[in-house]
Write a structure and sequence with these properties.
The protein has helices spanning about 15-25, 35-45, 60-65, 75, 90-100, 105, 145, 150-160, 175-180, 190-205, 220-225, 230-245, 275-280, 300-315, 320-325, 340-345, 380; strands at about 50-55, 80-85, 110-115, 120-125, 130, 165-170, 185-190, 210-215, 255-260, 265, 270, 285-290, 290-295, 315-320, 345-350, 355-360, 370-375, 385-389. By secondary structure, the chain is of the alpha/beta class. Strand 12 and strand 13 (about 290-295) form a beta hairpin. The two termini are about 35 Å apart.
Length: about 400
């Protein structure tokens, strides 16, 4: 998998999913992914009553280093780096976190997935049509009929005979799917400080707790402003200050902080529907994320498509057949979910430069042209910190 020097491919022996494996092991739940040795060691050493996992969306290692000094709370408590599971996008990574499965086995691979059953691309976390933005009635088209999984919360509760109290403290704009997964465990926080205050309150309660906190930023800031914007510095500085203030208040706790993915600056937007040598060879809508685009090609036109793609976009993307993508282990190991090959189509275009791939059929809303994006293979997207306190 050594394509270029700045490319980082997923390493499921040293991935952010290993954090969840460590937590599952701590609660005597079997896990198929290698756990994090650093997290294991800390949990064994302290054997805490409360385990906190704080997920800060898009706070990759490169983002931390760019915006915070070495002596900041977050950077000074960093134990090392992990690769994100792939594709490194919130839908895929959090689905791995909340199922304990590698992507090959849960199939929540991207923000937008093509369902052949309805000939429709669906944005699976907000549950809406990818091209019109219209909400979809799950009573009519229920993706959980294909893609339901047993959550880690159910697994922990079953193993511990419900003696572990589980709390999900999420940003108030958490997507529909995350709210659904959290279920009765959910508390919504309107500010980052309110999230930390809720963690403090949960830790003060009697009994054992597993607490997951999730905050939406800096993902939203990076998408809209790019990697170097002052709003990102302001957010991370505030986060760092609040953590330094609140972490000592989390009683009898071990704290684990990481990110789902990092981010890359985007300078070029390529619209597949406007590149006729490519679009004329596609046999249905492309899906996936703009830097991990799944493309289905007319049968027996694969070689022609690959040669044209290399000519048009080869400097910015690596094109892999779906079979090669799976063979190289980008989605990990484990039982192959029956929807995975459907979702991958013929090819996956993997971002390795500063460009994304967009698509809109006639009459669709224009796709967003973000200044920052993720799901590609650059170090800034794929490398995330492991922070322990």
């Amino acid at each position: 998998m050594n394509f270029q020097q700045n490319i980082v491919c997923p390493d499921y022996n040293h991935s952010n999913l290993g954090i969840i494996s460590s937590v599952l092991n701590y609660y005597a739940v079997p896990s198929s992914t290698k756990s994090s040795a650093d997290v294991d060691s800390l949990l064994v050493q302290k054997h805490p009553r409360n385990v906190i996992f704080l997920l800060i969306d898009a706070m990759g290692t490169g983002i931390l280093n760019r915006h915070l000094p070495e002596d900041s709370f977050l950077r000074s408590h960093r134990r090392g780096d992990l690769t994100a599971v792939y594709p490194c996008t919130t839908v895929c990574v959090t689905s791995s976190f909340f199922s304990g499965l590698q992507p090959v086995s849960h199939a929540w691979l991207a923000w937008s997935l093509y369902f052949k059953e309805w000939d429709e691309c669906i944005e699976v976390f907000p549950y809406r049509d990818a091209f019109t933005g219209e909400p979809i009635d799950p009573n009519e088209k229920n993706i959980l009929d294909f893609m339901g999984f047993r959550t880690i919360f159910e697994q922990i509760e079953a193993a511990a005979d419900r003696k572990i109290k589980i709390d999900c403290i999420f940003t108030d704009v958490a997507r529909q799917r995350l709210v659904q997964i959290a279920g009765d465990h959910l508390t919504k926080a309107h500010t980052l400080e309110e999230l930390f205050q809720n963690i403090e309150l949960k830790c003060a309660e009697e009994g054992n707790h597993f607490i997951i906190g999730y905050w939406k930023s800096p993902d939203d800031l990076l998408h809209n402003n790019g990697l170097s914007h002052e709003s990102v510095t302001e957010f991370l500085s505030k986060t760092d200050s609040l953590l330094e203030q609140y972490a000592p208040r989390f009683s009898d706790a071990v704290g684990i902080i990481s990110a789902d993915h990092g981010m890359q600056d985007i300078f070029n937007h390529f619209h597949l529907d406007q590149i006729s040598p490519l679009s004329e060879l596609m046999n249905h809508y492309p899906s996936g994320d703009p830097r991990a685009k799944a493309i289905s090609v007319i049968p027996e036109k694969e070689d022609l498509f690959a040669s044209r793609f290399e000519r048009e976009l080869g400097d910015e993307f690596i094109l892999l057949s779906a079979d090669e993508f799976l063979r190289r282990g980008f989605l990990g190991e484990g039982p192959l979910h029956p929807k995975v090959k459907d979702f991958l189509g013929s090819f996956i275009a993997l971002g390795v430069g500063h460009s994304d791939l967009l698509y809109a059929p006639p009459g669709a809303k224009p796709p967003k042209e973000f200044k920052g994006h993720h799901a590609g293979l650059t170090e800034d997207e794929m490398q995330v910190p492991l922070i322990l306190f």
